[in-house]
Design brief:
heterodimer; A: about 230 residues; alpha+beta; nine-stranded antiparallel beta sheet; about 35% helix; about 30% strand; elongated; B: mainly alpha; three-stranded antiparallel beta sheet; 14 helices; 3 strands
Chain lengths: ~230, ~300
């Protein structure tokens, strides 16, 4: 037996190198150094024939939920719009400046089911918004009498991502080039027992919303690159 | 080889054997101590991951128990398999650590340690250390969707069970999905968005118990393994029941302070007692009595 073995030393050295490589490859630059925009101002309070529903007092989430939201997202806009025909539409846009792992936006299928909803059907579709194809997820969330069709998408870095693998790849591409990607969650939902009709209404609502925004701001929601 | 007995500085300790491990220990420490520090400031503070440090300590203890396997004269390492596993583990580690992907960073423990054992000691040593490596699975934070898929149905059963039991006892209770309303209070049973659930840590506890009380009696092992899920269910059921009764009788704040204070511990103790009780019961059954009597 001997005190020293070159094989052990070699393995130890490789490990030290790995530890060094990991800390050298850590991204330091945020994609948007300071999120120089105000989400609440960016999203118009009225557009087309939609206005913010004056009858709805925003419900403040429970303190623990609120703390969790504040940790995940740096800016959140959550509004209910109503149109002349009395239809209403719930819009949530959440921005997170750091989409590295611990602070990622949540897939809404998971969130809704965690809140006690049953997710009936999840399907992926493309919306054509301002000449751009946007991959969205549609689902029907049901809790007792509440039937809520949901349309949403997530961005990571500078594109809309559909699915975990794609998001992971974008995260790695950003991260390994030294940048911390940001991300946006855009979710539209309504209370309806006719999902097909509701999804069409969501699409019209989103088109109208994007059309009414400052066109410079649109890439923040849709990503600047084709998906 | 000499016939003179080896001189030992510390009786019972193979100092030379342990000394050879110094460079590897240093490498491992440089890699993973920062990981543990970050986890202690982040993930492990979340209620669903508080068992993390315990898993880590238990694993360290399990490996220490087998230190004889580590200092034994190397039987010629498995070079190819060991190098592949170690390389894979290091790539996972570098990617996970630098990009903040906890799944990769923490998950890399298993191929890194497995690779080291294979490379330096060979398959036989890996065979002796398989359990600590397997146990590290419970250290890895699962993505939310996996947790939901694993624990969703069980949570829903718990909610239904608690509702029908309390309803039967005459409490003013109603359920809507996973939201239970009792009196003027409303409580959400599942909070899967915030991470891992108790079932996972109960499974860890079950496996550890089985390993430490290892017997050759396969019937007992199989029965105990099969009991993990029902025990997790029962323990959760009791926890939710207590939470709801405390809230109903003592108010919302009392319920919350119980929930954040001692409910997790109560869950663990209940599960452990159930497991021990079930095992004791198995020992009393004549066909299963004794270790390996029927082999």
């Amino acid at each position: 037996m001997k005190y020293f073995d070159w094989k052990f030393l070699l393995v130890g050295t490789v490990m030290v190198l790995a530890a060094g490589a990991a800390s050298a490859l850590k991204p330091t630059r945020a994609q948007h150094e300071t999120a120089g925009f105000d989400l609440a101002k960016m999203v118009p309070v009225s557009f087309g024939d939609w206005i913010i529903d004056p009858s709805i007092v925003p419900i403040v989430p429970a303190p623990d939920v609120q703390a969790n939201l504040a940790r995940l997202y740096s800016q959140i806009v959550s509004r209910t719009y109503v149109n002349a025909r009395g239809e209403s539409m719930m819009l949530t846009i959440a921005y997170g400046g750091d989409q590295s792992d611990a602070l990622k936006a949540h897939w809404q299928e998971v969130c809704y089911s965690a809140q006690g909803f049953e997710i009936k059907e999840v399907l992926h579709d493309n919306l054509y918004l301002l000449g751009k194809s946007v991959p969205v997820t549609r689902m029907l969330a049901v809790r007792r009498a509440r039937s809520e069709p949901v349309t949403y998408w997530l961005t990571m870095g500078n594109r809309v991502v559909l699915g975990r693998l794609q998001r992971l790849l974008v995260q790695l591409r950003f991260g390994l080039s030294g940048r911390i990607p940001d991300g946006m969650l855009v979710r539209v939902s309504s209370i309806s027992t006719n999902p097909t009709q509701a999804f069409m209404a969501h699409e019209e609502f989103i088109s109208a919303l994007l059309g009414a925004m400052r066109q410079d701001d649109v890439p923040r929601l849709l990503g600047s690159l084709p998906s | 080889m000499s016939s003179v007995p080896e001189q030992r500085v510390f009786p019972g300790w193979d100092v030379e054997g342990l000394c050879r491990w110094l460079p590897v220990t240093l490498g491992l420490a440089l890699m993973y101590v920062p990981t543990y520090i970050d986890l202690a400031h982040g993930l492990w503070r979340q209620e669903a991951h508080t068992h993390g440090p315990i898993i880590l300590a238990v694993t360290a203890w399990l490996i220490w128990r087998h230190r004889a396997a580590l200092v034994a004269r190397p039987a010629g390492g498995a070079r190819l398999a060991g190098s592949v596993a170690l390389a894979l583990g290091l790539v996972l580690y570098i990617t996970g650590r630098s990009q903040g992907i906890a799944l990769f960073e923490v998950g890399s423990h298993i191929p890194v340690l497995g690779g080291v054992v294979l490379l330096l000691l060979g398959w036989r040593a890996l065979g002796r250390l398989w359990f600590p490596l397997f146990f590290l699975i419970f250290l890895v934070p699962l993505p939310g969707f996996v947790t939901v898929a694993m624990t969703g149905p069980l949570k829903s059963l718990v909610a239904q069970g608690v509702e029908s039991m309390l309803y039967g006892l005459g409490y003013p209770i109603a359920r809507s999905g996973m939201v239970l309303s009792i009196g003027q209070y409303q409580m959400l049973i599942a909070d899967a968005c915030s991470g891992m659930n108790s079932i996972y840590s109960l499974a860890a506890l079950g496996f550890l118990y089985l390993y430490l009380t290892a017997s050759r009696n396969h019937a007992r092992t199989a029965l105990l393994l099969a009991s993990i899920v029902p025990i997790a269910f029962t323990a959760n059921f009791i926890r939710v029941l207590i939470l709801i009764l405390v809230t109903f009788h003592l108010g919302y704040d009392a319920g919350q302070s119980f929930f954040h204070g001692s409910a997790g511990m109560a869950l663990f103790v209940t599960a452990l007692l159930l497991l021990l009780g079930f095992d004791a019961l198995l020992h009393r059954l004549p066909p299963l009595r004794g270790s390996g009597a029927l082999q």
